[in-house]
Amino acid sequence: MATFKDFRNNIKPNWCPGCGDFSVQAAIQKACAANGLEPDELAVITGIGCSGRLSGYIKSYGFHATHGRSLPVAQGVKMANDELTVIASGGDGDGFAIGMGHTVHALKRNIDITYIVMDNQVYGLTKGQTSPSSEKGFVTKSTPNGSIENAIQPIRTAMASGATFVAQSVSSDIKQLTAIIQEAMNHKGFSFVNVFSPCVTYNKVNTYDWFKENLTAVEDIEDYDHTDSKTAMNHIMEHEGLLKGIIYQDKEAKSYQEQIEGYLEKPTVKKEMTLERETFDELMTAFR
Amino acid sequence: MKEQLSWKVGGQQGEGIESTGEIFSTTLNRMGYHLYSYRHFSSRIKGGHTNNNVRISAKEVRAVSDNINILVAFDQQTIDLNAHELVNGGIIIADSKFNPSKDDDLDVQLVPIPFTETAKNLGSQLMKNMVAIGASARLMNLEIQPFRDMIYTMFIRKGEQIVENNNEALKQGYQLMDQEMTHIEGDFEMVPSGQEERLFLIGNDAISFGALNAGVRFMAAYPITPASEIMEYMIENLPKVGGTVIQTEDEISAVTMAIGSNYAGARSFTSSAGPGLSLMMESIGLSGMTETPLVIVDTMRGGPSTGLPTKQEQSDLMQMIYGTHGDIPKVVLAPSDVEDAFYATIEAFNIAEYYQVPVILLSDLQMSLGKQSSRPFDPSHVDINRGKTITEDMDRDEAEYFERYSNEEDGISNRPIPGVKGGIHHVTGVEHSPTGTPNESAENRQVQMDKRMRKLKDFTMDEPFKVNGNVESELLIISFLSVNGVVQEAAERLDADITTISLKQIHPFPIDALRPYLDGAGGILVIEQNYSAQLNSVLKMNYHGHDRIKSYVKYDGTPFKPNEIETHMSSILKIKEVL
């Protein structure tokens, strides 16, 4: 059985020292090992940005796609081979700006993959511009007088989009993050995990300490029921999106693939490519 | 008796004009006639004039006709808009419900028949199309039984009564016309048909069926005219072979989902038109850079922007050849007709997977939506070639990544799909080393760029173009897609030494194979449907004899008619004589 070390390669990430993404990488590796996966059974699909480099730092099949498009590529991979465990990943710019359309639709479509966003509320790789999840008033190169737009609260957007699994954590809590990613991978359907992953270079506001002070764990909320969407949404709104833990899960929902009759009998890649003569004739007769 | 006739039915969109044409022409195809149809429609659901023009012939036809012989009108607008296309002595069969009238200057006959009234008396005015079909059948002196058979297959699901009512409507239409026959001048009787069995389908169907035969079991697409029929065909038929279609949120998602599926080893594709292709450009680059097979069908329509969404044009050519940033190896194909579209689609998937490149399969609106007769497809010509795709586990130490981008002589590296043991590697749109790790060194860049581009350096299809005529010719005409059928007919009408070429391999340009024909031609004429003569430009970029190359273009949204091309050709031939 593979250990988390088997999910490591010898490539040194190009992230800044202290970057939150290191812990996300480690948590994914640990969760994969804990879930009994082998590296060749995993495909990690990423977008563009600092976080997008993740696919190159985990030993597994990896596809580093274009900006904002990790989700459609990942969904295509899963539709082709249901036996693979598929993780899509990227940053807040990737998922909530250029790729937001895909995010909302992947949430509503419910294909059985896990989407992990490393949310640092700033554009790092392009050297410090505002992001969709930057707080109002946040000063960056592109918002010298402070952002005048409202911030997107990822878990609120996810709930509103019909998500069946919504979780949020912070990269400093690697133990909880690992447990959440394990649960997310076990969820039958689309699982969304937003991870606050501080940018130590361009975000001097939303720091590790800031999250320690401002995040509320759902375990600490009395009678919190993460299977009840109304409770989840109320608390998200009450805490302005600053919750951590498994926020919501619909265990009854069927994944996209499960709802297609016969689709899961065999992974698509293993299906016969040549048409039987009978099928050929029947289909051609329809053109007469 | 007539060797060929052109029949057109028109009315308001949404009142069954489409199905009238469909029932009439499908029956004629089953009777053994050759058909070629053209739909005029608008970008709206209901209302607005629509018509369906069917050319019926005892011999093969691959073009719309110069004019029409029979016009079936469900409203006055149909007469006002189309009667001028009738030949002298042509006939209008019109629903007497709207008191039809025609321009007195036109030398055509007007025969009012109570389509709606007859249908209403039989229980439903929906059957007015059957009355019109009966009347048309009588005029052309066609056997009635094949129409009855057609009605049976179409309506038996709805019950015997519906079949009977429709048969009665057909019969009464036939009889009503029969009473008029004594007043009708001229010959509208078709010669008997041959017995050969033929398909009757749109290009989009041929492409879709080709994709199924190529092993496609997953498709991702976004609706757009004139490509939607491909997605709809796949939605209906993929489940029969265990596959499925996702209708995505946009074209970027569609193409990247197809890339994901192809990367994971399941052949998949997407289809769209110009606007969708514009959105896919970055992803086409991703396919090229990551060497992930990809097939995109581009059914061209009138551009730019929303342009003429329901009209014929061939103006995406330059975008398809050049439209992505950076240099990638890419193939652009253009089937020569509907039959070829089936085989070309299978070939597109084989090329994409063998060379690990994006392949754009072009069509144009007229090829995509114009229903036409075709020889049946031959399953023994279906061949799936997956090239260097590795689907079986490998006995290999996985301490190091697999060299997915190893620098091979032919540029094509082995491609293990995710899940294969021993094949772990990384894939990225960033310039990368043989294992797929991002690598921006100057040396690696040059090696990898050369490797990718080498894959198609000497690429030529088995049949890069379809040629009719000799290497030496007085005039060589080059066209592509649906225009070729029109060129062919026009060329046959002229008593001149004309060679026609339907270019199938558009990119990389097959100059070596073409050169003998170009060198051997007195003059070269490129005929295409766009403003800026795009194919002509591509030819000139690859061939030096610019002074011998002439261009003829049309960009009004309607397909070429044979006489337009015939006139143009003969004027060119005359000029040459004078010189």
Could you explain how this protein is built, in words?
The complex is a heterodimer of chains A (288) and B (579). Chain A is α/β, with parallel strands linked by helices and 288 residues long. Chain A has helices at residues 21-34, 70-80, 92-98, 100-109, 154-160, 174-186, 208-214, 229-238, 277-285; strands at residues 42-46, 61-64, 85-91, 114-119, 122-123, 129-130, 165-170, 191-196, 216-217, 243-249. An eight-stranded mixed beta sheet of chain A has the order 2-1-3-4-8-7-10-9, with helices on both faces. In chain A, strands 5-6 form a two-stranded antiparallel ribbon. The radius of gyration of chain A is 20 Å and the shape is globular. Chain B has 579 residues and is α/β, with parallel strands linked by helices. Chain B is 37% helix and 21% strand. Chain B is built from 18 helices and 23 strands. In chain B, the strands form five sheets. Chain B has a seven-stranded mixed beta sheet, sandwiched between helices. In chain B, strands 2-3-1-4-5-6 form a six-stranded mixed beta sheet, sandwiched between helices. The longest helix of chain B has 21 residues, at 160-180. The relative contact order of chain B is 0.09. Chain A: Its cofactor is [4Fe-4S] cluster; thiamine diphosphate; Mg(2+).
* CATH class placement of the largest domain in chain B: Alpha Beta
Choose one word for the global shape of chain B: globular
The rough form of chain A would be described as globular
Radius of gyration of chain A, rounded? 20 Å
Tell me the strand order in the biggest sheet of chain B.
Answer: 9-8-10-11-13-12-21
Domain Pyruvate ferredoxin oxidoreductase beta subunit C-terminal (chain A): 199-263
Keywords (chain A): Iron, Iron-sulfur, Magnesium, Menaquinone biosynthesis, Metal-binding, Oxidoreductase, Thiamine pyrophosphate
Protein name (chain A): 2-oxoacid ferredoxin oxidoreductase
Domain Thiamine pyrophosphate enzyme TPP-binding (chain A): 48-195
